[in-house]
Amino acid sequence: MRVVTHRADGVRAEEVDRWVATASILHSKGDEMDIADKGGRMVGVRGRLQSRVNHGRIGTKNLFG
Predict the structure, then answer these.
(1) pLDDT for 3-59, tens place per residue?
(2) Domain tally for the chain?
(3) How many CB atoms lie within 10 A of CB 64?
(4) What is the CATH number of the domain that holds 50?
(5) Which of 17, 21, 30, 45 is deepest in the core (most CB within 10 A)?
(6) Distances in Å between the alpha carbon of 43 and those of 13, 27, 55?
(7) In the prediction, which pLDDT does 38 show?
């Protein structure tokens, strides 16, 4: 399976302070995802591979919402 990840321009993976587990509230499916935190600021998002709903994928609403 593939995990979809998106980070803000110029933010490398090793620069992320932590990934915080959450779920989407943009639609009724409740896609699970992780939000990247760097210095108290949201700088990215990725799907959660272990999710039984979205299996690591992330839709456009969650990616850009």
Answers:
(1) 778 889 999 989 999 999 988 777 666 778 889 999 999 999 888 877 777 777 777
(2) 1
(3) 9
(4) 2.20.25.90
(5) 45
(6) 10, 22, 22
(7) 96
